[in-house]
Amino acid sequence: MKIKAKIIGNKVHEVGYRVFLLRKALELGAERFNAYNTKENGDQVLISFLEGDSDQISIFQDYVQNNKPENAKVSDVIFEDYTGYLIGIVDYMHLIQVEQLSKGIPAILSIDRKQDKMLEKQDQMLEKQDQMLEKQDQMLENQEKTLGKLDQTRTEISSEIKDLRRDLRSYLDEKLIKIESDILQIKAKIGLET
Asked: Rounded to two decimals, what is the model's pTM?
């Protein structure tokens, strides 16, 4: 006995529906199975076929009618008798594996290309970071030189101030002595004695 199940809905593709039904067919011990995705009138459609005895067909119909993958959105399920050829279930599993590999390989290659680009950008970022660290080292070196010059300037200014104080003191001492001498001479001339 063979049956065809037509599962119609907004989301019956890319939700793991074919593997979901394959798993049930394997549990039932079916020897022939097939399933493929198509579109009709803007709806996603999954067509599934199963060959088995009447009990297997009945259980499969009940399962398809009452179960679906988590993210599937089904609006209708239609069953029909089928008389055409069906591939063996093991051959179908191989077909699914090849299909999944054909989806996976481009994804892996895409990841690999993106990783190469990320590594290039990371290298550029590290290069810029090295340049920034080099500039920071130069800035610190310049800052140390500037601080050294400031210390030297402060020492020179301090030394000059000390020299000026000594010179000023010496000058003022000389002036004071001269003034005192002049005062004594003036007092002596006007007759004031000290």
From this structure: 0.57
